[in-house]
Amino acid sequence: MKLYCLSGHPTLPCNVLKFKSTTIMLDCGLDMTSTLNFLPLPLVQSPRLSNLPGWSLKDGNAFLDKELKECSGHVFVDSVPEFCLPETELIDLSTVDVILISNYHCMMALPYITEHTGFSGTVYATEPTVQIGRLLMEELVNFIERVPKAQSASLWKNKDIQRLLPSPLKDAVEVSTWRRCYTMQEVNSALSKIQLVGYSQKIELFGAVQVTPLSSGYALGSSNWIIQSHYEKVSYVSGSSLLTTHPQPMDQASLKNSDVLVLTGLTQIPTANPDGMVGEFCSNLALTVRNGGNVLVPCYPSGVIYDLLECLYQYIDSAGLSSVPLYFISPVANSSLEFSQIFAEWLCHNKQSKVYLPEPPFPHAELIQTNKLKHYPSIHGDFSNDFRQPCVVFTGHPSLRFGDVVHFMELWGKSSLNTVIFTEPDFSYLEALAPYQPLAMKCIYCPIDTRLNFIQVSKLLKEVQPLHVVCPEQYTQPPPAQSHRTDLVIDCQPPATSYRRAEVLTLPFKRRYERIEIMPELADSLVPMEIKPGISLATVSAVLHTKDNKHVLQPPPRPAQPTSGKKRKRVSDDVPDCKVLKPLLSGSIPVEQFVQTLEKHGFSDIKVEDTAKGHIVLLQEAETLIQIEEDSTHIICDNDEMLRVRLRDLVLKFLQKF
Amino acid sequence: MDHECARLLPAVCAVLADPRQPVADDTCLEKLLDWFKTVTEAESSLLLLQENPCLLELLSHVPTLQDVSAGVLSFSLRLAGIFAAQEDCFQYLQVELLPGLFGAAGPLSRAVWAVPTVRSGWIQGLRSLAQHPSALHFLADHGAVDTVFSLQGDASLFVASAAGQLLVHILALSMGGRAEGHTCPQGDDWPTCAQKIVGHIEESLCSTDTSRVTQALNVLTTTFGRCQSPWTEVLWEHSPVLGSSDLGPWEMTAQALSRLGPTQAGPLALGVLKLHLCPQALRTQAFGVLLQPLACVLKATTQAPGLPGLLDGTSEDSVVADALLSSKSSCVGLLCRTLAHLEELQPLPQHPSPWPQVPLLRAVVTILRLCDGSAVPASSVGGCLCGTLAGCVRVQRAALDFLGTLSQGMGPQEQVTQVFAILLEYLERPDSSPMVLKKAFQATLRWLLSSARTPGCSGLGPHAVLFLPELFPVLQKRLCSPCWEVRDSALEFLTQLSRHWGGQADFRHVLLESEVPELTQQLLQDPESYVRASAVTAMGELSSRGLHATPTSPEQPEAQQSLLPEFLHILSADSEGFPRRAVMQVFTEWLRGGHADVARDTERFMATVLQVVSRDLDWEVRAQGLELALVFLGQTLGQPGPHCPYTVTLPKAAPPSPLTEVLGALCRVRLFEFAFRALFDCDRPVAQKSCDLLLFLRDKTAPYGSPWEAGGSPDSASVEAALQRWQAGEQGQPLGDLEPEAMLATLRSIDLEGLRGTLAQGSDHVEKSPQSLLRDMLATVGILQENQADCY
Predict the structure, then answer these.
(1) CB atoms within 10 A of CB A652
(2) What's the order of all strands across the beta sheet hosting A606-610?
(3) In the structure, what pLDDT confidence band is assigned to residue B647 with cuts at 50, 70 and 90?
(4) What is the mean pLDDT of chain A?
């Protein structure tokens, strides 16, 4: 059993598991932090961005000044943003049979895999995952396509040149594999390969293994997966949460008794508690708005935004902010808000029960009804007519490199009254802000990551007791910025096996058993014999028939009939010869009694020697050795077949036959 | 016992003795016993039994019943004990009744003994009975002491503990006669009973069964705790465990300190340090024990070796380190207890001196840093502590409490800076739990206060001046918290700050620069009533100091906007009691302090407030209204005399106006009507307060003579009629506009002293009477019977 690790990002995993005869890809996350190296794509012509000076080498050589621009001491690539794909060379991706998706954030690389690698299998995901994943992809494509950029920089990627660049460009990995965003056509084609599944649904893969999605509690439709055969069980845990937010709670019990548990997608901010962060979010929002400032919340169009809106729904009235407009701007804002309300069966119990009242499960419906929350596909159009300040704007993309957020950063960045509040943990907020420096706007970092923290992981592992844990290497050492926090690692016994990008792990356990079925008529003919209390044995002669990874014992054909020559020939072609069966023996030989029996039968001068594996009975007179071991008995005598048979019969007296 | 009770008693006894009539409520049996106890304290028990034969009948009948309820049996045992406490009554009962109850033939041998209540009743009965030497013989004759021995290990903790107490009692009783004259009688000539008990204790102490050793130690502890007669010293020496070596108690304590684990040694060390007379060496040792866990923490995190440690020179105690590292709960428990012990010790006059203020401050700051994950460990122990303590709320709370206590001793400049830095960090952290935040606010206030006390510093201390500009943005954020507990503690903190420094220019400047006053005013509309109440208090305080929000409209820049209308609105419209109470407190403070909004037209203010308050449903608001009225009276009539429990802090106001003018004012604000109405308030504290107020008013007006005869004017007659209606419970009718004379006449006609006496008795004095208890018991049974009858 092998695990091919195609992504080094712990929360955007992409692994391939070879298990029995199947090849299963677990998630295909897209690392978008690469876009932080690029200049933002402004929706409205920005003189500031277009007039940035080109970057030149220390010796004054300016051959890169078209590709690289300098802003407040940082160097950015002036080109269409590119993404860092999972490894495509480590394993032939056309051999992948299925792809299992655990949540909508972990499927963003799907079009690259399904459309460009010869992949011909099936993708499995829950319905909300697919629908919201589609929204995320649609938004991404829209953000990038609506700001066409003539230039595509590639010179800087040359290895010899990259070495000369300042950090972080110098240290960027695998830049040659970075790719531009896919098209909507590719998205549609990729999504058409998805087959929808429900929690706890059992899906057979070629009869060899069964895969089952389980609720993981992190996002709408998010799942962990169980991949099991009759005797082996691998659990894949990715992006799980034990907090009570909107999704259905995590199913922990079904993860028990795993041989291997692959653990990815833990919280990216292990030291921050989401509750405290939500409080921080609200307080800072209120302070800014009260002062007449605007609040910008860069976010994804789905996920934490639902919780934030719910929190604000309760908070704004009590804080006297009910007159402050909340704007949600995204090409998919409307769909996202509406989708969230229709996936009732995927929600936590509280929200599910609202549906029967009937009430919308999320209170943002009421915010929309009362005109407190308004949503727009983009800043163009209706929004510019309705726009009122001070206000709160939720918009993407959290990387601040594309999307409507770029416009608001340019618009509000100059005033210290305004605040940008970062709630998405995927991007370093300092790096995200780098191309906007100098910035007068206040910046608040309150990342809300509801995924498991290390304390919860340690409880979870104690609870489900897997034999082996496999995780990204980042989880086996404290975060670089807090190297003394030895509590911020996965603590389990035996220690977790760690992986990194482009590594192939041989999973630390061996398959030992295979299930075989017996046909009823064959089973009927068996006569079990009890050899020990509770243990019965029977011999069976049969034909092992293997098809579609299923093994069946069928009754053997009748013994060959020595009649017509023609027929005989055909039969012997099909059926292996069945030899006459010798009885099978079981039991052990008590040496003392055996010696007594020998004496009774006239043997004298008997010596017994203990050996490492058993005993040797020496019949000195007869120059004969009887070697008794746990699973074999040998009678060694010189060409005296009579004696051997006699001794053999004496030995057999102590054993059971059947 | 009065006749009524004596008349009811036979019926009650009959009910108790009848197993078909179960006593539904155990508490009435307890009340009955209490009553008998008070009766027997005043009267002879023997006489009581002879006059009420039903009692004896009950006591002799109950133990013979087959299906007696455990409750009644236990009651009988305890009742018999109460009677037999008097020696003559004991003699009277001991022939037949007592053996039947307490002897081997009694409940002891029956199935009902399995009920803990019965065993407990048996012990308590004996406990009451054992008051005289003859009782000792009775105990000896019936082998009761052996039963008590066995009950020490009873499954019921109450029974077991009572058995231990009883042994101590019997021991003391048997030694009692001898302690006076004899000097230290030796063990050999002790009474048999005492010898038996001591023998049992010795045997238990030597036992391998820890529970028996614990029982024996409990008995000894109780014995030494309750009497210091010379014989207890003999017992001390006598004991094979305590007296086997040549060690005295101090040496023994020293040994215990060194041998016990850190969890047990801590409380012992604290106890030692609290003693006034105790050898210095032992004190040093005890303090060392107490400091050990903190020393361990410091050692694990100290990067620079030069800094003073807590226990320099002594070897590290690996047991403590083990306790800190073994598990999270043990580490947290040990640290919390240690911090609490030190916190308790610090303010005591006998606290160790020199007090290691500097290393203690370092230790507690380190712990707080370990808790928020910012400490950098210097060893593997430190790394482990870091993981264990990160985010631990319990330790944070304990450490902040202790840090607050340490403010008394201050410390070197840079360390105080560190303290303020960590406090600010805690106030700022989004992860701080509401409880931790509250503690951080409290500790901050204490440090600010101490910093202001720095010698040679006027106003805020040097640290506070630097600290406040950083503090206010945090306070602002906290006032906007979605968590109401946080908003509430931030407001409380703000109130305290302004109370102490409202007059300081630096403070005023920082406060007015910030948005805090505005935010506070907005919180008057908070959805949470506690927060509204705290906001009222805070705004009241800010307003008193001229610190509340500067006017938003440019038209009236000269004055701050009056809060009075807003507060009056809260008082009349808020649905919760807390904000209304807070408003009344603020108003009282304002009146005392001569707040401009009140002083502008005090009469109108009083009239409005009293009118609103008189209709309030919350008695505390009405009581506070009387408090306000009293302050008003004090200001118009002069200070209440020393006989009055209320003090008014206003310096002597203008000389009292002539009486008629004052009375006219009181009538105009309708103070009389308010106070008279309150006199018949259904809540006693309100009525009492009103009574006190009217007495004060009457005394103040007395010297001016009484030109009007009581009840002489037609007006006063109508007032009295109205009062009678109020007393009868009719609340509707107002008194209308009346002349001061009528009021004064009415005031003099009411028997205020009598009323005060009645009110002092308590509203439940009727319900508490024994007659009522007996009637209740009978009535309950009656009802039970009726219910049974309904079934057929």
Answers:
(1) 15
(2) A606-610, A614-619, A624-629, A633-636
(3) very low
(4) 90
Beta bridge partners of A551: A516, A546
- In this predicted model, what pLDDT tens digit does every residue of B443-456 receive, in sequence order? 999 999 988 887 76
**How many Å apart are CA B538 and CA B332, to the nearest integer?**
36
Average pLDDT score over chain B: 84
Q: How many residues does chain A have?
A: 658
Q: How many CB atoms lie within 10 A of CB B447?
A: 23
Give the model's pLDDT for residue A540.
86
CB contact under 8 A, B390 and A485: yes
- Mean predicted confidence (pLDDT) in B538-547: 92
Counting one residue from chain A and one from chain B, the pairs whose CB atoms sit within 8 A come to: 74
Decide the pairing of beta strands A295-298 and A419-422.
Answer: parallel
CB-based contact, B535 to chain A, within 8 Å: no
What is the reported pLDDT for A454? 93
Whether the pLDDT of residue B553 is over 60: the answer is: no
Does B480 sit within 8 Å of A319, measured CB to CB? yes
| Separation between Cα atoms, residue A339 and residue A131, nearest integer Å | 8
Interchain contact, B525 vs A283, CB within 8 Å: no
Minimum-distance CB partner of A486 among B383, B432, B527: B383
| Closest approach of A280 to chain B, Cα-based (Å) | 6
B454 touching chain A per CB within 8 A: no
The model's confidence at residue B735, banded by pLDDT at 50, 70 and 90, is low
Instruction: Kindly list the distances between the CA atom of residue A459 and the CA atoms of A452, A455, A491, B356, in Å, as whole numbers in the listed order.
Output: 10, 6, 10, 40
Q: Which amino acid is at A216?
A: S
Tokens representing A218 are 């992190």
Between the ranges B11-20, B568-577, B655-664, B753-762, where is the mean pLDDT highest?
Answer: B568-577
The packing angle between helices B26-42 and B770-791, to 10°, is 150
Output the pLDDT for position B243: 55
| DSSP bridge partners of B84 | none
Q: Are A7 and A501 in contact (CB under 8 A)?
A: yes
Handedness of CA B22, B27, B31, B36 (dihedral sign): positive
Instruction: Give how far A369 is from chain B: nearest CA, Å.
Output: 23
Residues in chain B with CB shorter than 8 Å from the CB of A280 are 430, 477
Strand order from edge to edge, sheet including A295-298? A373-376, A326-329, A392-395, A295-298, A419-422, A442-445
pLDDT digits (tens, 9 = 90+) for A645-658: 889 888 988 887 76
Task: Pick from A275, A285, A487 the residue to mutate for testing the B interface (most B CBs within 10 Å).
Answer: A487
A272, closest residue in chain B (CA to CA):
B431
Report the distance separating Cα B178 and Cα B193, nearest Å. Answer: 13
Which chain B positions have a beta carbon within 8 Å of A486's beta carbon?
A: 383-384, 386-387
B515 inside 8 A of chain A by CB = yes
Residue B311 above 80 pLDDT?
no
Task: Give the C-alpha separation, A403 to B504, whole Å.
Answer: 51
Ranking A10-14, B553-557, B628-632 by mean pLDDT, the lowest is: B553-557
In order of A286, A296, A406, B514, B518, the CA distances from A289 in angstroms are 5, 11, 21, 15, 14
Alpha helix stretches (DSSP H) within B18-44: 26-42
Which has more pLDDT, B763 or B279? B279
Indicate the residue of B384, B430, B515 with minimum beta-carbon distance to A280: B430
Question: How, if at all, do strands A223-228 and A233-238 pair?
Answer: antiparallel
Burial of A369 by CB count in 10 Å (0-12 exposed, 13-18 middle, 19+ buried)?
Answer: exposed
d(CA A278, CA A300): 16
- Say which residues have a Cβ less than 8 Å from residue B278's Cβ, sequence separation at least 6: B250, B272
Tokens of B315: 């070897």
What is the ipTM for the molecules in this complex?
0.76
